[in-house]
Design goal:
The complex is a heterodimer. Chain A has 20 helices and twelve strands. Classes of the chains: A alpha/beta, B alpha/beta.
Chain lengths: 524, 400
């Protein structure tokens, strides 16, 4: 009972009186500051630039046509350059990323983004080309894309690949649209109305199926944490369009019945879809194509260490079997003799899923990563990610409940059910307290089939010493005064936000941020 | 060597179910006048006959309450009967009441029974538990209208399996290993205030066994209820001319309210619609219908060649889709809607309260229990279903 009350308490006020909190945490944000005198310092010279639409022309002597000139000063706070730099620097310190510390956010595979890939992406030969350039002038870039297509085909065991989808979720959407087009081409477009998804699936899977117009049928997991084959057989029928699976699944367990699952799908005329979210764990050891999958999406950020898009640029290439290749988005890069070109003559294509041809800079980083590690390196990456997860799981044995089978792949789920019962400390409290120790929290309350879950994925990049430090932090948290844990974090600008409020009343643009949220929304 | 088994039958238990009463004790005669029969004697017989086949000779001795309170059925099943309490000369089931149950239970304490098995529902469980407390472990053979308490097995055959197992290896002077259990019944105050809730009425000791059903959870997480209800409504709108039987509970109450139907709180309402432009107007063709009415409605719609569907919500914590508080939904009604037009509806949160994520059925007809689908598709959201396993471990009774 007590723990429930804690869970609903909102502490959005920060901890102004707490000496542990860094002073910078409580400075007003830049949107709340305005200093008219800043013009007298360093900001003024920048204004004419803005007013002239980017041309560095002094005020009053702009060559920009009248119609394009700014009538008012830009609605940004008036601050000197120094204060502006400090603002961004402060923001970067209150942010958290893999470059700062361990980020064991299970299922999200928060890999370190190696700097050699950044360096390659910054190369002017790649950074300063434009998608509208004549093919003959960007042969190197097209060669890179073509080779990436070939390498990805090899990694996942598929016959054709598109690089166009700009994110993992977009890859899913592309893949299921291909499935839909395939069934339509077979005259079964209206009879196949359902997509089957296990309850361990990522939330994007049902969302994808829904966006593609399918009904979703969820399959429960067995007590061992794998797909319930009997339930799957009962659910599959002539109405099934596809089965979407992640393997290993989000519990970090390899679906060992995968060949039987593929058989069930194919006998019913359905397609088997591979969600590439956990591909990192089996790199170089197993390929979705060999498991019987027909369509695969790849999250380049989870597998090939490109930056996580988070709504920005990302890449979610999709691979398919030969019989589905004609439905892939167009264009793809083709090679004719020694020349590379965009091939657009796919009559059965589902069309484009992104402007231009995908996020080139991200694809380039994945390509460089693949070149740097090669096939042996990729296998080592998969192996070490599994080793790290299992070492850590074993290291913290006894601290939490362990709901499933022993051996895991790249991530594991423990549960704080006993801790909740005995000390009133919940998974959320542990996650919050980890922030005070300098770690990002693991994924919590997912997948929702266990209860009080903590889902940990260290990735291959973390050294042993860091895993040990993380394990000790967990030990400390489990032992310490439950009151301290229940009110954590104590060192961050914001403690516990009112999540339902935040989720329902999104502030999506800058002007709203400046206004008081309540005023803005009472108008709506 | 011998397990001393006290045995009490509430001879009118279950009669209120098909009559759509919320219990049997006070309105047994009224239900009988409508032509309904109590299910307790039949369920008692199933338990006793199955136990007779399973148990090792000389491992169980039954002490039954006199006459219609247990001894008659026990004898009819071929058992030798010891008596529990004085013979009150009871031969008319309708002359019995709760006081008789309590007297028999009282005797079980004095006679030092190792286990007291009763045949009834939550009302009977209340009477038994309030009398014996934890002095004698109790076990319920499900035969009542409501069985929300955690002292019942799923079916009479399951109870027989459990008891035979307990008797195996039982030594005289042993005490059965027990677990504390909650005896629940409808919260009458909440019910009068328009809410369906259960209340803790007594505590009891039950044999420690996975064969005993879980208790109904008092309240279930209902996030996403609107979406699940919306999905069912969309399906209904595809064929408004159909017959939709909507069972009770707070989940289905949300559906009734979306459809604009003034239904009953606990009971089955029958609904059909007419298309008016691009809208559908729903109306109740029967509210709080009893078994006869439901069977007749299903037959009427079948004659019209129009679909009939049954919308139920599994009981939170227990997972019963039918068989607990749904006495009016007879095997005939179920046969008419299975397999595609039985539409269970629940939020994901409610399904999360189920032990091992498994659904249960107790249709009243063991053959139908066996023929029930192994999995049901539960509507959990808009365009979203979850496959749920249906447990069917009850052995089929042998025909006599």
């Amino acid at each position: 009972m007590a723990s429930d009350q804690v869970a609903t308490t909102t502490e959005g006020e920060g901890h102004a009186d707490d000496p542990v909190v860094p002073a910078e945490a409580h400075q007003p944000t830049i949107g709340d500051r305005d200093d008219p005198l800043a013009r007298l310092r360093l900001f003024e010279p920048l204004l004419p630039v803005l007013e002239a639409g980017g041309e560095h022309v002094p005020v009053g002597r702009t060559s920009a046509p009248e119609a394009y000139r700014r009538r008012h000063s830009p609605d940004v706070p008036r601050l000197a350059e120094l204060e502006t730099v400090r603002h961004y620097h402060r923001l970067s310190r209150t942010n958290f990323g893999v470059d700062q510390g361990m980020y064991p956010l299970g299922s999200c595979t928060m890999k370190y983004n190696p700097k050699f890939a950044e360096a390659a992406a910054a190369h002017p030969g790649f950074a300063r080309i434009h998608p509208y350039q004549d093919e003959r002038t960007v042969q190197g870039a097209l060669e890179m894309l073509y080779e990436l297509q070939e390498m990805l085909k090899e990694v996942v065991g598929m016959d054709a690949v598109t690089l166009q989808p700009p994110a993992g979720a977009a890859g899913e959407f592309t893949g299921i649209r291909i499935a839909r087009r395939f069934h339509e081409a077979n005259g079964e477009g209206s009879s196949r109305t359902e997509v089957i998804i296990p309850d361990t699936a990522h939330g994007t899977n049902p969302a994808t199926a829904g966006m593609c117009g399918y009904k979703v049928v969820e399959i429960p997991s067995t007590p061992e944490g794998t797909v319930d084959l009997d339930a799957l057989r009962a659910a599959v029928g002539p109405q099934t369009a596809a089965i979407m699976l992640t393997n290993p699944n989000t519990l970090g367990i390899f679906e060992s019945d995968i060949l039987a699952v593929a058989k069930v799908a194919h006998q019913a005329g359905a397609l088997l879809y591979y969600d590439g979210a956990n591909l990192n764990a089996i790199l170089g050891r197993a390929r979705p194509g060999d498991m019987g999958f027909d369509i695969v999406h790849i999250n380049t950020h989870k597998t090939f260490a490109t930056p996580h898009g988070g709504g920005g640029p990302g890449a979610g290439p999709v691979g398919v079997r030969a019989r589905l290749a004609r439905f892939l988005p167009a264009p793809r890069v083709a090679k004719e003799g020694e020349t590379y070109r965009w091939q657009t003559d796919d009559g059965d294509t589902i069309g484009k899923v992104h402007g231009f041809n995908g996020n080139f800079g991200i694809l380039l980083r994945a390509y460089v990563y693949l070149l740097r590690f090669g096939s042996d390196g990729l296998r080592a990456i998969g192996d070490v990610s599994v080793l790290n997860a299992n070492w850590l799981k074993n290291r913290i044995k006894g601290l939490f409940d362990e709901p499933h089978r022993d051996l895991r792949k790249h991530e594991f789920v423990v549960a704080a059910r006993t801790l909740k019962k005995e000390k009133g400390v919940r998974a959320m409290d542990i996650a919050k307290r980890l922030l005070d120790h300098g770690f990002m929290a693991p994924t919590v309350y997912f997948p929702t089939i266990v209860g009080e879950e903590l889902m940990v994925e260290p990735t291959e990049a973390e050294p042993l010493a860091e895993l040990e430090r993380f394990a000790r932090a967990l030990e400390d948290i489990v032992k310490e005064d439950p009151e301290t844990v229940r009110h954590a974090p104590h060192t961050t600008p914001v403690g516990r936000i009112d999540e339902p409020w935040a989720a329902r009343r999104l502030l999506l643009n800058w002007q709203h941020v400046r206004a008081r949220p309540d005023d803005v929304f009472d108008e709506a | 060597m011998v397990l001393r088994l006290g045995f009490i039958v509430n001879p009118v238990a279950g009669i209120g179910g098909p009559a759509a009463f919320k219990g049997s004790d006070e309105r047994a005669l009224e239900a009988a006048d409508l032509g309904y029969l109590p299910s307790a004697p039949e369920k008692a017989g199933r338990f006793l006959r199955h136990l007779k086949e399973l148990h090792r000779p000389m491992s169980i001795r039954i002490f039954a309450a006199p006459g219609v309170l247990g001894a008659d059925e026990t004898r009819a099943a071929g058992w030798k009967v010891g008596t529990l309490g004085a013979d009150m000369g009871l031969h008319d089931p309708f002359a019995t009441d709760a006081e008789h149950t309590r007297q028999a239970a009282e005797s079980a304490i004095g006679a030092e029974m190792d286990l007291l098995v009763f045949v009834g529902g939550d009302g009977t469980a209340r009477d038994v538990a309030a009398t014996v407390g934890d002095a004698v472990p109790i076990l319920g053979v499900p035969a009542g209208v409501k069985m929300f308490s955690e002292c019942f097995t799923e079916t009479p055959e399951e109870a027989a399996l459990l008891v035979a197992g307990l008797a195996r290896g039982f030594q005289e002077g042993d005490r059965l290993e027990t677990a504390p259990a909650e005896v629940l019944d409808l919260d009458e105050e909440a019910y009068r205030a328009g809410r369906v809730e259960v209340r803790h009425h007594a505590s009891a000791a039950i044999p420690r066994s996975p064969r005993i059903q879980s208790a109904k959870c008092p309240t279930c997480p209902q996030d996403g209820l609107e979406e699940a209800v919306g999905e069912v409504r969309l399906r209904m709108e595809e064929a408004p001319e159909g017959l939709y039987l909507i069972a009770s509970g707070s989940t289905t109450a949300a559906l009734k309210s979306v459809l604009g139907i003034d239904g009953t709180l606990i009971g089955v309402d029958a609904v059909t619609g007419t298309r008016e432009g691009d809208k559908v107007r729903w109306q109740a063709v029967a509210t709080d219908a009893d078994a006869t009415a439901l069977e007749r409605l299903v037959a009427d719609w079948k004659a019209k060649d129009a679909p009939a569907a049954l919308i139920v919500s599994p009981i939170g914590g227990q997972g019963f889709v039918v068989g607990r508080g749904t006495g009016q939904i007879t095997p005939n009604v179920l046969r008419a809607v299975l397999p595609d037009r039985l539409w269970p509806i629940a939020t994901i949160g409610k399904l999360g309260t189920l032990e091992d994520g498994i659904l249960h059925v107790d249709t009243g007809d063991p053959r139908l229990d066996r023929a029930f689908p192994d999995h049901l598709r539960v509507v959990v959201g808009l365009g979203r279903e979850r496959m749920m396993r249906v447990r069917k471990s009850s052995p089929l009774p042998r025909t006599a």
